[in-house]
Amino acid sequence: MLNLPLNALRAFAAVYAHRGVRAAARELGIAHSSVSRHLAELDRWLGVPLVREGHRGREGLTFTPQGDALGRATLAGLQSIEHAAASLRESRSRR
To answer: How far apart are alpha carbons 15 and 27 in whole angstroms?
Structure first.
């Protein structure tokens, strides 16, 4: 787990959720070029492309089957972490 590129995964999750790099960059508060670098890092780390080159449909970016699977899993995982953290913060404020 130490080698897992968490920043790149977080950026990819935002790209997946918004179907675009610029909207993801706005959400994350970073430059869109940084988001693109995170995506390239993740592609290299995984050894498979996550986004189909040159394929931009009406809904935004088109993901490869691997990108779609990772996008769903990453969003679900981050949402689970977010809920757990919110519960901890809630229990802290009750004390």
So the answer is: 10
Using CB atoms within 10 Å of the CB of residue 49, give its burial: 0 to 12 exposed, 13 to 18 middle, 19+ buried: middle
Which residues contact residue 39 at a Cβ distance below 8 angstroms, ignoring those fewer than 6 apart? 8, 11, 12, 15, 21, 50, 51
Provide CB contacts within 8 A for 32, sequence distance 6+: 21, 22, 24, 25
pLDDT digits (tens, 9 = 90+) for 19-65: 999 999 999 999 999 999 999 999 999 999 999 976 565 668 999 99
Positive or negative, the Cα torsion across 33, 56, 52, 70? positive
Global model pTM greater than 0.70: yes
